[in-house]
Amino acid sequence: DELEVDIALLGKFSGPRDEQRRLSDSIREQQRTAERLIERLQLVVEDYDVEQQQIKIQARVQEQEQRAKQQQRSFRSALLKYRGNVEALAKKERELLLSGAATPAELRRRKARTGNAALNAASDVTTALQETVSMMNEEIDKSVSNIMAMEDSSEKLRKTKAQYIAMDDILKLSKNLIRTLEQADVLDRWLMLAGLVLFSLVAFNILRKRVWIPGLYTLFRILRYL
């Protein structure tokens, strides 16, 4: 992890305080970037409808949060180590000056080389981290786009299902109506037939009384006895 490399570099750093502040500011900026990524991941978790995916991303969020806390502790420890390094370096420089093993100019050049090397390394690490953050942002954006597409598809499926259910209800209602009409039609046929028979009997009875037909009276008597 680039941030951990920067923190480790700060723990070994013993250059000027201005350069240490630049390195510390770079670490803090990386930590803020990591926190923003965690917040985005938390938002992505809320957008997922599938419980298994939520559990998976939530576990990743918790892992990143634990790492961020550990890096914060490491950063504080690195700051303490830096103070110890500065004190140890100052003590060593005093010993070198007192012993005559080095001149003040040589000590300044040595500090400059050490500080530049550390800052160059920190700059390279920061650039790499920025590229990594950019890639992670792109992946998160893709995940959000996929979630939105899935939600849109789910909404369309829900609407289609509702339409099919409505059509099925209409078909059932139409089927019941047709069955009722068919039953009414059969009943109407029977009523018409019964009316026709009744009309025929009435008409026949009227004719029987008004018109004399040979043998008809005898036929009725026979039918009555039967």
UniProtKB/TrEMBL annotation:
Alphabetical GO CC annotations of the entry are: endoplasmic reticulum membrane; Golgi apparatus; SNARE complex
What stretches pass through the bilayer? 190-207
Among PROSITE patterns, the record links this protein to: KAIA_N (PS51430)
- Per UniProt, what is the membrane topology? Single-pass type IV membrane protein
According to its UniProt entry, the protein's GO biological process terms are: circadian rhythm; protein transport; retrograde vesicle-mediated transport, Golgi to endoplasmic reticulum
- What InterPro entries does its record include? Circadian_clock_KaiA_N, GOSR2/Membrin/Bos1, Sec20, Sec20_C
Per the UniProt record, one Pfam family is: Sec20
Main subcellular location: endoplasmic reticulum
Kindly indicate whether the keyword Ion transport belongs to this entry: no
Write one Gene Ontology MF term. SNAP receptor activity
Keyword Transmembrane in the entry? The reply is yes
User: Where would you find this protein in the cell?
Assistant: Endoplasmic reticulum membrane
Coiled-coil region list: 20-47
Q: Which family does it belong to?
A: Belongs to the SEC20 family.
Recorded protein name is Sec20-domain-containing protein
Naturally occurring in which organism (per UniProt): Coemansia reversa (strain ATCC 12441 / NRRL 1564)
